[in-house]
Every structure is written in structure tokens, then in C-alpha cells.
Amino acid sequence: MKLIKSLFLLILLTVIPCLAEDFEASTNDSLIEKINDAFQKVGITKGYVQEEKGKIILKGNYRNYDEFLSAYMIAQAIAGVNKVSPVYDVVKSNIVERNLEVCVAYSMLGFPEKCPTPISYAVGKENKKQQKYALLIGVGKFKYNINPLGNAPINDVNLVKGVLEKRGYKVYTLINEEATYENVIKTIRKILEEIPDGGTFFFYASTHGAPKSPDGETGIVLYDTSVEGRACQTLKNARVSDSYTRDIIITANRMCNFLVNSLTLTEDIIPMLTASGKRIRFIASLDVCYSGRALKPYLGNLIDEVYATDDKSALRISGVFPYEMIYISSASGNQLSLQADFNGKEYGIFTYEYYTTIPQEGFDTYQTFEKVKNRVTEKSGNFCRAIQNRGIQSGCDANGQRPLYIKNKEKVNSVL
Amino acid sequence: MRFGLVLSAFAFLSFSFANDSALQACQGMFENSPKKSVLMETGQNVLTGMFIGGAIGFLSGLIEGKKDEAGERAVLGAVAGATAGIIYSIYKNESKLHKSRDALAKELNYSPTYGNIFRIVYAKVEGNKSEFKAGEFVPIVIRFNAIKPNPEEPVEVFYTGKLYHNGKLVGTFYDRIYIPQGQSADVFAIPVCNGAKVGEYTLELTATSSGISDTIRLSWRIGG
After folding, report:
1. How far is the alpha carbon of B13 from chain A, nearest alpha carbon, in Å?
2. Which of A313, A279, A214 is nearest to B211 (CA)?
3. Best residue in B177, B183, B206, B216 for a mutation probing chain A (most A CBs within 10 Å)
4. Is the pLDDT of residue A390 over 60?
5. Which of the 8 DSSP states describes residue A268?
6. Cα–Cα distances in Å, from A356 out to A156, A160, B165?
7. Which comes out higher in pLDDT, residue A321 or A313?
8. What's the rounded Cα separation, in Å, for the pair A134 and A392?
9. Dist CA B149 CA B104 (whole Å)
10. ipTM over 0.90
């Protein structure tokens, strides 16, 4: 009897893993069928997925990168985030119309404006007298449904403007309604036309900040920034007939809900500077929430999104921008940035502490950072605890904001 | 070598859009992008494999003196040949275009403590041709070495490009893509649309990933 029981147990132990494997295979088969079915229904007719080594891989032909991205989002919506690879492997799939191909082809034709991903600018006449330019953005009210910040961002801009003008900067400001995405890009282009080779460009923003995409870099919220599902145009235009696919499309569309018309250092400003062909020293200072992750595509996922200020972090972003770059954030990548009352006027806590101190420190950005960082942490911590004690729900860090100072070379000119 | 031959054939593909406007002509060329030739090449190998397999099967039937079985063997041989052709083609294309992360890591004695590796191994205008005319495609292949400490993580490549015409900057742009870890290629086929300006072109392309940048310059000429 014991022998029969043991044999039965042995058979069970052998069969169960096999059944589990079969079950997993059939589950994946059904997922793949669902994904391919959804592709057809939204008009992605030549793309499909297959499973390879436990990952779902995009294969076949895609009209452009947007269609590829839409297909990826659909596959993720059905199979889950970790199961689908975003990789484009030329052996397995083909994006028929790459942005680079379109840009070069139309530029050779004399229509560079037809490029879907331009970094437009014009090489202008050099102004040899003016070496330093700044763009300051302050947004306290917004076109769409985003909480207003009152006058603090405008006060911040005026404070920083005063400091920079003392240092000989030509300062451009964009306040509230003026700070639309289009205006910001136009103003940067104008500055890049005017700035001479070897000049300095200082960029500052005081407004909301939010991850531009799920787990992505921080986008600077502008007057006309909204949260929409425009990242995947193919999905937006998809016409679906049955409710099952509609559910999938709605889910995939939610995953495309990125900040629209927000500004990033990594996708908007730095590529424009690089492409200007001029040797420009770049200093950026952001007083926005999650500002510590504004360089996330370069720095990757670090523990708690807190970046060290040592040479190691400098090394990690070396090569991103060929000339000197300094980035000063008001908080680390997982923290809110607070604003508070100073002598009857509201300012960002970081901006007030930093920019009222910098003239006393010989306008040295690093020396000032070392001088004020603990004060910012202490004041913002106190302020956060005070508002939490009043029963106001806030995601602020009771331990205080931790500003960051990141540079891309071991030795940079840190003076404004 | 096979892929090189496919790409060199790009140069001979031409389309007649003489009567269309320049922009429509360009759109038409994109719709006929010859990058698909990589996949078509697999089909050619299938046909070659079928022919060779069929011939061997038929001959073996004749040698053994069973003429009535020769046709049957030819069919079986063709099937076997087709299979071998597909496998051969996939293997050749994959080995030409991709080296696995493990193989590259071994080759470079990579250890996770090295952090990220990102480098352009080579970039070239394929097909030993430097002059193109309207209706042709400029075929570009870029090959990367890319390794990250986490083997599962895809590699995001951010391109910034500057296009110079006779030494003057005419346009700047960006593109981005995720590629697999290991040694892998990115392929472009740039259409020379009807009306493209004649002269020397230089594309300066900077690829950035994980904070590491590498820049290449590629040149070609558009003839009249």
C-alpha cells in the first residue's frame, strides 16, 4: 500500500509541474492571441507579437515609431508591464518610417520644417558684447485644471532676475500666460540665435513639476500643460467596434496619459543646446516638485531618487552635454518642493534661501549650495510638519527637502 | 556579407515620381522603403534551399535506380531544403545584425561593476557607394555595443543629428529607440526624393545612452 502511495505521489510530483508549464504556455498563447487580435482591430495590420524566452516581442512592420509605441502599450495593457519588451530589433521588426529618415530626406529637399522631431534653430549674428543669457519661467496659474500657486513663482522670478542682472545677464522672463510651451521653445531659439560661441545660458523655472510619463523624468508644468493621452496617436485615432477591444484601448490609452506640453531638460532644452553647434555653458536651476529627477534619463534609477553631489554622479552624466553643465534642484527626485511666506511675500523655500544668499558668496553656485542646503532642509521640514499638524493632508517630506547640485565635469566654472 | 549585399541593392532601387510634387514623391518613397528587403531576403533563401534540396532529392532517387521514387524524393528534399534555407537565413541575419549580451559580455570580460557600456562599433553608408540620385535610398547601418548591469533592461538610444549641405548646417533633429543589449544594429534607408538639392551632405549623428555619447559623421553626394 505504501509503495502504491509513494508511486502515486511520485507521479503527481512529475505531472504537476508539466501541467503548470502547459497552463502557463496556454495562458501566454491566449495573451498573444488577444494582443494580435487587438492590433488588427485598431488598424496595426502588419505588426504582431510572439513569445521568446518568456518575453512578448513586437514583430512585423510598423508604419512609424508612434505605431510601434501604440502596439507596445496595447501589449502591456493586455499582458502586464514586465512581460512585454519595448525593444526594436531590426532582425525581428521594421519601423518603415523612422523619424531620422524623414528629417534627413525632407532637409535634403529643402523642407526641414517637415521633420517630425526637429531641434530647430537658426545660426544668427554673434553679439560679442553680451555673453550671458537667462530664461526665467514663473507659472502661478494654469490654463487647464491644475492647482494655482499664487504669486510665489512670480516673486521667485523677480528675485532671481535681480541677482542675474547684477551679474550682467540679459534676462528673458515668461510669466503665467506667457509661459506656453510654444513661447518657451521660441524664446530658447531666440536666445540661441543671439548667444555667442562660448557664452552662458542660465535656465530657471518656478512652477509645478510632475513625472512626464509613468516613472519618467520630471516635466516642468507650463501655463498650457495638460494631462492627456496624446503620446500614442494611433491609439487616439483607433476606431474599435467591440467592447472587449475598447476596454483594452482605454487601458492602453491611460498608459499613454503623459503630461502634454510640459518642458524637460533632457528632451527639450539640452538637445537644442547641443544642436546649436555653439559651445555653451549651461546652468539650470529648478524650483519644482520632484526636481531631483529632471535628469533621470541620464542618471537612471538611483536609490530613493536621491543623487549624490560627488564626482561619481558627475561622471554618470559626463558625455551627455559636451560643455560645462551645472544642475541645481530644489528637492530630490521623490520630494515635493514647498513655498512659504517670507516677510509677507510668498517664495519657493529653496529659491528664497539660495538666491538671497548667492550675492554674499561671490555668486558661486556651489559655495552657495553648500551654505544653504541644510537650511533649506530644516525650514522645509519645519514648514511641512506645521502644515501636517494643522490636519492638512500633504505629501511633503517632514524631514525636509534635499536640494541637489550636479555637474557634468570634475572641474567646472561654478560662478554665475 | 549577405546583409551587405541586400543593402548595396538599395542603391539600384528607383522609383519614378517625376510628375508628382516633391513632397508626394517623398511620401511615396517612404511607403516603398527597401528596409523590407531584409525580410524578403529570407524568402530568397527559402527558394534557393528548395531548389537545391529538390535537386539533391531527385538525383538520389535516380542514383538508386528508383525512377518512380525520384519525384517523391524531390518533394521531400525540397521541404528539407526550404527548412534549411530558412534556418540558414535567420542565423546569418541574426549573426550579422546581433550578438547576444552574454556573448559580448564574455568577449569584453564585462563585469557589472563596469557599469554601462555604450559605443558605436561602426557606422557606414552601405554598398560602397557615395553618390546617389533622386529615386534612390541612402542605406545607413550603425552597429552598437551596449551592456547594462541589469541584463533584462533595454537600452534607450537618443540620437541627435545635424545635417550639413556643402558645409552649411541645414537641419537638426532627434530620434530615439530602444535596442536590445549586446551588439546590435540600427538600419536606416533615407530616400533621396525628387527635387533633393545636389551637393555634398554630411550627417553628424550623436547617439547617447545611459549618459554616454558617441558621435559619427557620414557623408554622401547627391548628383544631378
Report:
1. 16
2. A313
3. B177
4. yes
5. I
6. 11, 9, 49
7. A321
8. 37
9. 13
10. no
CA distance B84 to A354: 70
Q: Measured between alpha carbons, how far is A383 from A398 in angstroms, rounded to an integer? A: 8
- Spatial neighbors of A379 by CB under 8 A, at least 6 apart, are A340, A349, A353, A400
Contact A88 B187 (CB under 8 A): no
pLDDT digits (tens, 9 = 90+) for B124-175: 898 778 999 999 999 998 999 999 988 888 888 888 888 999 988 888 888 8
Amino acid residing at B218? L
How high is the pLDDT of residue A182?
Answer: 92
Dist. CA B123–CA B62, nearest whole Å: 51
By mean pLDDT, which of A14-18, A199-203, A307-311 is the weakest?
A: A14-18
C-alpha cell at A141: 496659474
Question: 3-state DSSP: chain B helix, strand, coil percent, rounded to 5?
Answer: 40, 35, 25
The candidate with the shortest Cα–Cα distance to B207, out of B104, B118, B98, is B118
Q: Is A108 on the interface with B (CB under 8 A)?
A: yes
Q: Which residue has the cell 535596442?
A: B179
Contacts of A84 in chain B (CB under 8 A): none
Model confidence band, residue A231 (pLDDT cutoffs 50, 70, 90): low
- Determine the 3-state secondary structure of B117 from DSSP: strand
Task: Write down the H helix ranges in chain B.
Answer: 2-10, 22-31, 37-63, 67-97, 101-107
For A168, other C-beta atoms within 10 Å of its C-beta total 12
The whole-model pTM stands at 0.58
Left (φ > 0), alpha (ψ -120 to 50) or beta: where does A261 sit? Answer: left
Residue A283 CB neighbours (<10 A): 22
Nearest CA in chain A to B28: A97
Both ends of chain A: CA-CA distance in Å? Answer: 88
Beta bridge pairs of residue A62: A95
Q: Give the single-character DSSP code of A207.
A: S
What 3-state DSSP class applies to A29? helix
Nine-digit cell string for B129: 557607394
Provide the chain A residues 357-416 that lie in CB contact (below 8 A) with chain B: none
A84: distance to nearest CA of chain B, Å?
A: 11
Question: How many other CB atoms are there within 10 angstroms of residue B111's CB atom?
Answer: 9
Edge-to-edge, what's the strand order for the sheet holding B117-125?
A: B98-99, B182-191, B137-147, B117-125
- Side chain identity, residue B71: G
Q: Is the pLDDT of residue A402 over 70?
A: yes
CA distance to A88, A129, A159, per residue, from A164 (Å): 45, 16, 9
Contact A291, A328 (CB under 8 A): no
Mutual orientation of helices B37-63 and B67-97 as an angle, nearest 10°? 150
Q: Which of A118, A271, A321 is nearest to B170 (CA)?
A: A118
> Can you name the residues that pair with A282 across neighbouring β-strands?
A201, A325
A100 touching chain B per CB within 8 A? yes
Q: 3-state SS of B1-12? A: CHHHHHHHHHCC
B1 CB neighbour count, 10 Å cutoff: 7
Closest-CA residue to A109 (of B168, B12, B21, B31): B21
Q: What part of A 115-174 touches B (C-beta under 8 Å)?
A: 115, 117-121, 123
Beta carbons of B175 and A61 less than 8 Å apart: no
